[in-house]
Amino acid sequence: MKPIDRREFLKSSLLGGTAISISDPRLLAAQTAAVSAPIASSSETPGIIDTNVNLFDWPFRALKYRDTKALAAKLRNHGIVEAWAGSFGALFAKDMGGVNGRLADECLEHGQGFLIPFGSVNLAWPDWEEDVRRCHEVHKMPGIRIYPGYQPFDLDHPGMERLVKMISERGLVLQVVFGMEDPRVHHPIIRVGSVTLSPLLKASRNTPNAKIQLLHFSGAIRGGDLSSFTEQTNIVMELSRLEGNGAIGRMIGSIEGLPSARVPVERILFGSHAPFFPVETAILKLVESPLNAEQLQAIMQGNARRLLSRV
């Protein structure tokens, strides 16, 4: 396979590149060593699977790439070969069947085989089990995305363990969204509830074959919960909320001398949170973290393909 230069790939993905300021000399040394590592690929550039995008209108302001066609073009321009898409409409809707149907149609019209629809259910509304069935059997979706805090329930909801079991039985992926925007800029009329990780950890322990992904998850939780998270290999996360220079490297423990959560690299997937966040932001996190070729390839697409059993 033809080797791809890591620096050239990331430069082309960012359409010219952006200067990165790395103040810590340990980060700079680690990044200098990693950035020249080649990536083996059978094509001109290795593709990225973006596991966290949303379609339609964000309720509180007009986002630049709210048009699905424009968003798909933007993602493709940055080397995204597949995007797992939820719907902003799922946050407050009571007609979840309608939300999921529109999402499936939108992905089919503007990105068949590229935009992969992840429907949603709301445990606070009746008959959510039927929404799971329709997402799987009618719309052929590979997973379900829930928005606790916006949808009026937390992960200690009595239906949570049942949802995890249903997801496991059907071979789906459950994506759990831990936030959409900084709480300090929430609209004053909206009170978004907190999301508690520990009930999800319990449900996943009881159903170890369930495939669960945490979206927009910072990893900043109490030590006991984080330790339990790292022990449960059926739970993965994406990187859109990891912040600071070398954030991915710190998370996986690849920067000697710096504190790290030491989450295994095979548990971290690429996610941009687009169009709420610019896709460039997520790609820059790959640039500023000291990742070798194997780690970079795993985060960009290998871990996502394994999660959907498409390796």
What is the H/E order?
A: EHHEEHEHEHEHEHEHEHEHH
> How much of the residues is beta strand, in percent?
15-25%
**Domain tally:** 1
The average pLDDT score comes to 84
Number of DSSP-assigned strands: 10
What is the terminal separation in angstroms?
A: 17 Å
Description:
This protein is an alpha/beta fold. The protein has a single domain, classed as Metal-dependent hydrolases (TIM Barrel, Alpha-Beta Barrel), CATH 3.20.20. Helix content is 37%, strand content 15%. The protein is built from eleven helices and ten strands. The strands form three sheets. It has a five-stranded parallel β-sheet with strand order 6-7-8-9-10. The longest helix has 16 residues, at 96-111. 44% of the residues are buried. Residues 15-23 and 32-44 have low confidence and may be disordered.
Structural features:
311 residues, alpha/beta, TIM Barrel, five-stranded parallel sheet, three-stranded parallel sheet, 11 helices, 10 strands
List the helices and strands and how they pair.
Elements: E1 2-5, H1 6-13, H2 25-35, E2 38-41, E3 48-55, H3 68-77, E4 80-87, H4 96-111, E5 115-117, H5 128-138, E6 143-146, H6 160-170, E7 173-177, H7 198-206, E8 211-215, H8 223-231, E9 235-238, H9 247-252, E10 268-269, H10 279-288, H11 293-307
Parallel strand pairs: 3-4, 4-5, 6-7, 7-8, 8-9, 9-10
Antiparallel strand pairs: 1-2
Helix pairs in contact: 4-5, 6-7
